[in-house]
Write a structure and sequence with these properties.
The complex is a heterotetramer of chains A (307), B (289), C (303) and D (270). Chain A has ten helices and 14 strands. Chain A is of the alpha/beta class and 307 residues long. Chain B is an all-alpha fold and 289 residues long. Classes of the chains: A alpha/beta (307), B mainly alpha (289), C alpha/beta (303), D mainly alpha (270). β14 (287-291) of chain A pairs antiparallel with β14 (281-287) of chain C.
Chain lengths: 307, 289, 303, 270
């Protein structure tokens, strides 16, 4: 399968502030998550691949064509921008109708699609109200409706789940997953790993304007695996368990907190977790909680930067 | 030994109730305006009329030095209240005041509306009145610098150049006129600028309106006067009204043949309407009903 | 009781945003939970006096919310939901400016502005122009300006929206620090359940302008079964099949979380045994912190 | 100007048409449009008042066509055309940047030049309608007694044409300014009420550096009325050539605007 989007040596700076630096990347059909903390360069990357800004160095090709000043491409692209900006005087439906019209659909087709898009994002009832009166969540959803109404092959969304409540979030995740079928491409940015995990395995990690890792999420997971890791355990006889842990060579450190919480640091999580259930059973320890306080991206980033 | 507490620390000071809770708004507003590109240059252009008039006073006192230029008989001007009136209500000065408003006044409220910052103000112990006082005082600061301050300086200079107190004996009320008229002029323009600035979140629109309304009212007068030849239509023009009041303050012949009280009442009415509009428009959140 | 309101009603035209809300809130951190459009922000805006309720009354620290707004606002700090800033300013002058507006003497406000900016973690960018701030930094700045005058009551409207996990964690830690040790009361509005769970002991759930439920979080959670949340590595299918065999109800979430409902007469030991038997690693094992989510789904009528 | 590209799914012209219809709607909905509409109808009220005064109060005799051509038109020409063109022209680009709505437009299969031209067309039509409504209605009111006189109609159409040309040209100019200047309003005010106002009275060919010169060249030769001072020292360019110059200027400004708008990258910030 050939790449839908291929990007080569892409670099972008604003004045003397770095936005993106030397990014080379191929994105294929399916859902790809662009992941990174606030200000990492995710938005810059998405703006570059949708041709809203020009790269200082490097090229972007979308389905083989350059993106900058190539409007015809956008019949096949849907984009959901990050900023909370609208033509506030229009009603939600009117907004969709005109966006569809700009995409080149005929009158009835616009109407049909606008109604369907409103339905998809649960705004059918509010379609006639002006956008100015919408709540945060509704604004987010009309923005998403705008990006999918013309059935694009490639859907690019910048932080689409921002400002949505859990139910809304779940619906949008479902919608994105459905959208992927029929061989389409979705690129979603987010700063929350579980959100991306819920949608796809294919991720790109961006931090400080660079691509830190790219590929299957398990690869990222393995990265997380392969560096020292903290595990918090709450159980009935923590000191006994701690004594057992210390016998193992992958355990580096065991600490106790005031409330009986035990923090174990290990550099081989696989074997640690592999042992843990049987260890608990053998010693007849009642387990209350196992959690990983730093099981998140920041830990990976810290690790990657540190090395 | 005491160790500094980690994390959040309380502030041990006392909140004070200022006599003027709005003074920070004024201070920071003035600072922000001066930070704008080209504003300083532009602002000093406004002092040109003051310099010209100052030169005029100097020449009038030292006529003998300038005899080679002007013959005494044809002395083009005399320093008297009318001289001050023509300084304070001259077309050029009024025009430049409007341009200051376009530059520094258009964004006063419009920008707060645009960036949702009204809620920051109104979640503090500020009344609406304080907010407006703060914004008004910014306009006052800039306008008084180009009207009141040079006005009084000119008066002082006249005394200094003359080297005696004859001038003040002739016109003991003149300083009061200068103060009164400058303040009135400024108060009106402050209401005018804030009123327009609260009309929209878009400061470009406000800028056009600030300039447009001023010119428009004057053109309207010209049109009506053209058709009907009635000086009463001068009441439609912002500029004419201000000049009318100026003439009254300085005891000069009125430029338009209408009682100056009418102009005064009109401007006061406008300010009243502006204040009412402002207090309705400006609130912590924008409510779309 | 720091906040007491009775029968507050408010409508935006035809849309009834609040439809008879009664509240009396204890000290400490209180969570205001509800889906988008439930009326959380409207309630806070009424408490701040930005909106005048159509009906009902209330008071904060004994000051009437209709008439004594200035006294109330001296004691509260407000962190708004939407982006708000004054362009052209840097963080220090912005924060000290707002401190001065609260009535702090000028020099004190300047000193305190530096302090709170350090506290929220903006010390490195405090001289940068606000227009150039990222969304995470704007969020911190909003918290800083809410704290600058050392209020007794904090209103935080969606304090973690738009933040990455690290930033979110840090903000929540700050909130926890403020509320637990420093005797400042906090009212947090959020739609993120875990934010509320982490920081608050008391929760009010709003839905469609009414109070759907309220009480101590611990009391609201009490149920007749225990719910465990797991993340595992290894053969998920067979592991879950086995557990199903024990008659446990199992739910898989979109983000890979597995929720297992264990009847009260059983212990989670079975889960461990199954894991050993199926060679599955249990990476995450938490006793039902999120039954709040169930409650939430129940009261607001999840899909 | 960018070429209509074959790769486009719709063709350049229909893109322009779609953009046009979008902004024509949006422009009508905006509250500020209503304010400007109101302002441009004020001369109509003046005319109505004058007529009322003549008929009912019998105060004086109304020289309908004289007042129309020397006062109403002067108002439009000296003031309203400039203000409307300035605001709407600079809006075309600036309002998309300030409102951060540019993204919605640039991620549609519409060439940037078509966006600009479509929006230009919509806004220009909007303000031409504003102007025309006021002009035509005041004409009818002021000339109610002489509507059978074809020479008066000729005057009306001549003025309408001149004003329309003025709007078209000035709006194109300010559109161009708006594509690259941030403080476009301030510059525009200085240009239109400073430069244009002063230079047009310069003798010789200096006055040919302002747009107003060509517009005034198209007006009927000045009557020696009370308002002739507005036109003094005009050394008119022949009408035919003036029209051509105005049209060429419009095309050049639009082409430059399209060029800048297509080539420049706009970074949306607060």
């Amino acid at each position: 399968m050939s790449a839908v989007i291929s990007v080569e040596k892409l670099s972008k700076w604003y004045g003397n502030v770095l936005g993106l630096s030397d990014v080379t990347l191929d994105i294929e059909a399916g859902i790809t998550g662009i992941l990174g903390p606030n200000g990492a360069g995710k938005s810059t990357f998405l703006k570059l691949i949708t041709g809203q800004i020009k790269s200082n160095i490097g090229t972007v090709r979308l389905q083989g064509e350059t993106v900058w000043n190539n409007p015809s491409l956008f019949a096949r692209i849907g984009f959901c921008p990050e900023q909370d900006a609208f033509f506030e005087e229009l009603s939600g439906k009117c907004f969709l109708l005109h966006m569809l019209k700009l995409s080149g659909f005929s009158g009835e087709e616009c109407e049909r699609r606008a109604v369907r898009a409103l339905e998809t994002v649960d705004l059918t009832g509010a379609g006639g109200r002006v956008i100015r009166s919408y709540s945060r969540g509704m604004r987010q959803r009309i923005k998403i409706a705008q990006s999918i109404a013309h059935d694009p092959d490639v859907l690019i969304m910048d932080e689409p789940l921002n400002g949505l409540d859990p139910l809304g979030r779940r619906k949008i995740i479902r919608l994105i997953k459905e959208f992927k079928s029929e061989g389409r491409t979705v690129i979603v940015s987010s700063h929350v790993l579980p959100e991306i995990e819920a949608m796809t395995n294919q991720i790109v990690l961006i931090h400080q304007g660079k691509i830190f890792a790219q590929g299957d999420i398990h690869y990222i997971r393995d990265l997380i695996e392969s560096h020292p890791h903290m595990i918090s355990i709450k159980c009935s006889r923590p000191r006994l368990l701690a004594a057992r842990f210390i016998e193992e060579k992958d355990v580096i450190d065991v600490r106790f907190h005031e409330d009986g919480e035990m923090i174990v640091e290990t550099n081989d999580r696989d074997s640690f977790f592999g042992r843990l259930p049987s260890l608990l059973l053998k010693n007849d320890i009642d387990i209350h909680e196992i959690s990983s306080p730093d099981d998140n991206l920041q830990a990976v980033f810290d690790y990657l930067i540190g090395s | 030994m005491s160790i500094k507490e980690k994390g959040y620390t309380h502030w041990d000071g006392e909140l004070e109730s200022r006599r003027f809770p709005w003074s920070p708004i004024m201070r920071s507003g003035i600072r922000l305006t001066f930070k704008k590109k080209f504003f300083k240059l532009f602002f000093f252009l406004n002092l040109i009329p003051a310099v010209v008039y100052l030169a005029g006073i100097y020449i009038s006192e030292r006529l003998e030095d300038f005899e080679f230029m002007i013959r005494e008989a044809s002395m083009p001007f005399k320093v008297n209240p009318a001289y001050f009136n023509s300084f304070l209500s001259g077309d050029y000065l009024l025009f430049m005041i409007v341009m200051i408003l376009v530059f520094a006044g258009a964004g006063l409220i419009a920008d707060d509306l645009k960036h949702n910052s009204l809620q920051l103000y109104f979640s503090r112990p500020l009344k609406k009145r304080d907010y407006f006082m703060g914004k008004t005082s910014i306009v006052f600061f800039f306008l008084l610098i180009v009207t009141l301050v040079p006005g009084l300086v000119l008066f002082l200079m006249k005394l200094i150049f003359a080297g005696n107190f004859k001038f003040i004996q002739d016109y003991p009320w003149l300083p009061l006129s200068i103060i009164g008229y400058s303040v009135l002029l400024t108060a009106f323009f402050a209401c005018y600028a804030l009123f327009l600035s609260a009309l929209s979140r878009n400061s470009r629109y406000v800028a056009v309106m600030t300039f447009g309304m001023y010119l428009f009212s004057d053109i309207l007068y010209a049109i009506f006067n053209g058709i009907f030849r009635k000086p009463a239509f001068a009441l439609m023009s912002i500029k004419a009204n201000l000049q009318q009041i100026g003439a009254a303050f300085f005891g000069v012949k009125l430029p338009y043949d209408v009682p100056w009280m009418y102009s005064f009442v009109l401007l006061v009415l406008f300010c009243g309407v502006a204040v009412i509009f402002l207090s309705r428009r400006v609130r912590g959140v924008e409510v779309v009903r | 009781m720091s906040i007491e309101v009775n029968n507050i009603k408010f409508s935006y035209g035809r849309i009834q945003a609040l439809d008879g809300v009664d509240l009396s809130l204890p000290g400490g951190a209180v969570g205001l939970l509800g889906p988008n459009g439930a009326g959380k922000s409207t309630l806070i805006r009424i408490l701040l006096g930005f909106l005048v309720p159509d009906e009902g009354d209330g008071d904060i620290f004994g000051f009437d919310i209709r008439t004594r707004q200035t006294d109330i606002r001296r004691l509260i700090g407000y962190m708004p939901e939407d982006d708000c800033l004054i362009p052209g300013m840097d963080a220090v002058s912005f924060t000290s400016y707002l401190g001065e507006l609260s009535g702090m003497p000028r020099q004190e406000a300047m000193k305190r502005a530096h302090e709170v900016l350090y506290y929220v973690g903006l010390e490195e960018s405090r001289y940068r122009l606000l227009q150039t701030y990222s969304s995470g930094m704007k969020q911190r700045l909003k918290l800083a300006q809410a704290l600058v005058h050392d209020p007794q009551l904090l209103f935080l409207d969606e304090p973690t929206s738009g933040l990455d996990p690290q930033g979110r964690k840090e903000i929540l830690e700050l909130i926890l620090d403020i509320s637990s040790k420093k005797n400042i009361q906090i009212l947090i509005s959020s739609h993120i359940l875990s934010d509320i769970e982490l920081t608050c002991s008391y929760v009010v759930i709003l839905d469609k302008g009414r109070i759907a439920s309220r009480g101590e979080i611990d009391a609201l959670r009490r149920m007749d079964y225990s719910l465990y949340e797991l993340r595992i590595k290894g053969g998920k299918e067979t592991f879950l099949q086995d557990l199903n065999g024990f008659g446990y109800q199992i739910e898989e979430m979109e983000d890979g979380l597995i929720r297992i409902y264990v009847p009260s007469d059983r212990t989670p030991r079975d889960i461990l045994e199954t894991a050993v038997g199926r060679d599955v690693q249990i990476r995450h094992f938490v006793r039902s912190r999120s039954s709040l989510e169930d409650l939430f789904a129940k009261v607001v009528g999840a899909d | 100007m960018a070429q209509p590209e074959n790769t486009s799914s719709m063709g350049f012209v229909s893109s322009v048409k779609n953009v046009f219809s979008f902004y024509f709607l949006l422009g009508r909905k905006a509250r500020r449009t209503k304010v400007f509409y109101f302002i441009s109808l004020i001369p109509l009220m003046i005319a109505a008042f004058a007529k009322f005064a003549e008929l009912v109060l019998q105060t004086h005799h109304l020289e309908g066509i004289y007042i129309f051509s020397n006062i109403i038109v002067a108002f439009y020409l000296q003031f309203l055309v400039l203000i409307l063109a300035l605001f709407f022209g600079t809006s075309i680009c600036s309002e998309e940047l300030e409102g951060k709505t540019l993204t919605y437009l640039t991620t549609r299969p519409v060439p940037k030049a078509a966006l600009l031209l479509g929006k230009y067309a919509a806004y220009t039509l909007l303000i031409i309608l504003m102007m025309a409504a006021g002009v035509i209605l005041s004409f009818l009111i002021l000339n109610a007694d002489g509507l059978t006189d074809p020479s008066r109609w000729r005057i009306l159409f001549r003025y309408l044409g001149v004003l329309t040309l003025g709007l078209v040209c000035y709006t194109a100019f300010f559109t161009f300014i708006g594509t690259f200047l941030k403080r476009s309003i301030l510059f525009g005010l200085i240009f239109s009420f400073g430069w244009e106002n002063v230079i047009q009275y310069f003798p010789g060919s200096t006055q040919r550096f302002v747009i107003a010169h060509y517009i005034k060249s198209l007006l009927p030769s000045p009557t020696t009325g009370r308002f002739s001072f507005l036109l003094f020292q005009l050394e008119p360019t022949p009408p035919g050539r003036a029209v051509v110059v105005l049209l060429v200027l419009t095309a050049v400004f639009l082409a430059l605007a399209c060029l800048v708008f297509s080539k420049k990258e706009y970074i949306l910030e607060d």
